[in-house]
Amino acid sequence: MVASRRFAFQREHSNVKKKSKDLVFQNEIGCMMHSFGDSAYPLKASVALIERIIRDQMNMLLKKATQLNLKQRGNNLTHGHLLLLLQKNENKFRRLMYYLKMRDASELIRKKKYDDLP
């Protein structure tokens, strides 16, 4: 009897841990929701829903890029495959290119900052 209770508790506890591992970016998504006009403390259910939607969309994009890579008989998935998929949607393509340019610019600034140190 005691062993079955302990097993049930461990099973419930492991499910809670598993759910919390699934949702990795709760704080970041909550902050983004707040910056877009939601409350300062959004519901955990809505944050979890948004994270699952984003994860599903990213998985779908990566699957399509992998299929494109296989059609081209490539060995590695590169950013070029993602760019080919996003070329059809001009707004998404522009946002991605802007992000990549800003990332490269910030890396250059960091390198110059550390190169100037004596």
Automatic annotation (TrEMBL):
- GO CC terms, sorted: nucleus
TM stretches of this protein:
none
**This protein's superkingdom?**
Eukaryota
Name its cellular compartments. Nucleus
Query: Per the annotation, which location comes first and is thus the protein's main one?
Result: nucleus
UniProt keyword Thylakoid present: no
In the UniProt record, does the keyword Nucleus occur?
yes
Give the matching SUPFAM superfamilies: Histone-fold
Instruction: Report keywords, A-Z.
Output: Nucleus, Transcription, Transcription regulation
> What GO MF terms are annotated?
protein heterodimerization activity; transcription coactivator activity
Any one biological process term the GO annotation gives: transcription by RNA polymerase II
Return the protein name: Uncharacterized protein
